[in-house]
Amino acid sequence: MSKQEISIFWFRRDLRLEDNVGLFQALQSKYSVVPLFIFDDSILDSLPKNDARVGFIHDSLSKINTQLQEIGSSLLVKKGKTFDVWQSLLQEYDVKEVFFNKDYEPYAIQRDTAICELLETNKTIAYSFKDQVIFEEKEITKADGLPYTVYTPFKNKWLEKYKSMAPVQEYDTESHFSNFHKNSFDFPTLEQIGFEESPIKVKPHNLKFISNYRDIRDFPALDKTSYLSPHLRFGTVSVRKLVNWAFHKNDVFLSELIWREFFMQILFSFPKVVTQNFKSAYDGIEWRNNEEDFKRWCSGTTGYPMVDAGMRQLNETGYMHNRVRMVVASFLIKHLMIQWQWGEAYFAEKLLDYDMSANVGNWQWAAGTGCDAAPYFRVFNPEIQQKKFDEKGIYIRKWIKEFDLGYGKPMVEHAMARDRAIATYKSGILK
C-alpha cells in the first residue's frame, strides 16, 4: 500500500497557530499539512522531571491540539532523539515538504543542519522562515557588513529599517486552516513523556501597564511587569504583533524588544559567547569561585536583602524582576568574584523565560566581559539599590519572611568587596 503524501509543519519556538510565518507558508502547500512537535531527548534528559518549562510547553501544545480538533485535525507529538524521530517519520509517510521557523542557537543550528541533510537524502524539500524576530542574522549590519557589537547604533539601524516597512507584515494563518491534514492523533499526557506537574507555573502575559513602563519598570514591589518573556521565548505570542503594537505605545518597552534581537544577533554571529568572554582581554582575571559562597548566593542567604529576595523569588517561582537580576548578577561576580558562567548556568536551570542569547548577553553585560557591557569598575551597592527601588522593603518582606526578626549580617563587606573586584579586574585584564 502506498504511503500518504503530506507536508509537515514542525513546531519549535513558535507554539501558536496565529501569525506564524512557517505555518502560514506550509498551509499554502498542495499537500495536506501534518503539524508536528518533538520532545527532544537531547534537551529533556538534562532536566528535572518536574521542570516547569516542560509543563508550559505541554500546556501550550494542548491548547494548539484543542484548536486543531475543532477543525478535524490534531497535533502529532513525538518524543526521542530528533534525528531518530525524523527517520521514523520519513519511513511512515511520504513526506514531500517540511516547513519550520528558524532557531539561531548553536545546538538548534547544528540540529537543523543534520535534519535538512536527512530530508535532502529523502528527496524531501525543506523550507525555513524567520518568525521569532523582526530582523535576523545579517539583516542589521554596519556599512561594511559586519555585525554591530554596540547596542545604540544597532537600535538606530533597527528602527530606521522598521520604520521603512511599518507595520511589519502579520500572517493570516486562520484563513488557510482547511489545508490541515484530517487526523486524530493521540495527545500524550505529561506523564507519558516522562514528566510531572510542577507547582511553578508560567503566568499569563499582561500589557496593561505598558503605558507607564518607563516610570514603574524598576520597582519590583509594584509587580507591574508584562510577564511576556516566557511567552516570547516559547513563541506563544507573535513578535510582529507585539512590535507593531509597542511601536505606538512605549519607546522604552520597544527598546527592550530590540535588546532581545541585539543579543540574538550577537549569539548568531559570535557563538563562542555561550561559554567564553566576548572580550578575550578579560580571560586573565583570577576568580575566587568559592563553592560555599556560591551556595549561599543560590539559596538567598548572603545577608544582603535585595540579593536574597531576588534569589528566593527565582527559586520559588521561576521569575525574577529585571532590576533585581542586575543586582544579584553584579553581587555574584563583583562581590564574590565568581565567574559569570556559574550564575548563567544557575539562571538557565531556574528561569521560566530562559533564553540563551539574552541570559548570556546579560550576564556578560554584568561581568563587563560582553559587548557593550557595563564597565568593570561599576559595582552595584545592594543596599543603595534597595533604598532606591524598594525603600519600604515591600518586595524584600514578601520573599524574606524572617526579615523583621533580625536579619543576618552580610557575608562580605561592600567596600572591601568593591575594592577587591576592581583590583582583581585591573590586574587580570590582558593588555
Automatic annotation (TrEMBL):
One of its GO terms (biological process) is response to stress. FAD binds at residues 213, 225-229, 253, 256-263, 353-355. Pfam families: DNA_photolyase, FAD_binding_7. GO terms for molecular function: deoxyribodipyrimidine photo-lyase activity; DNA binding; FAD binding. It comes from the Bacteria. Its cofactor is FAD; (6R)-5,10-methylene-5,6,7,8-tetrahydrofolate. The keyword Cytoplasm does not apply. Residues 5-134 form the Photolyase/cryptochrome alpha/beta domain. InterPro entries: Crypto/Photolyase_FAD-like_sf (IPR036134), Crypto/Photolyase_N_sf (IPR036155), Cryptochr/Photolyase_FAD-bd (IPR005101), Cryptochrome/DNA_photolyase_1 (IPR002081), DNA_photolyase_1_CS_C (IPR018394), DNA_photolyase_N (IPR006050), Rossmann-like_a/b/a_fold (IPR014729). PROSITE patterns: DNA_PHOTOLYASES_1_1, DNA_PHOTOLYASES_1_2, PHR_CRY_ALPHA_BETA. Keywords: Chromophore, FAD, Flavoprotein, Lyase. The keyword Lyase applies. The record marks W287, W340, W363 as: Electron transfer via tryptophanyl radical. Binds 1 FAD per subunit. Belongs to the DNA photolyase family. This is Deoxyribodipyrimidine photo-lyase.
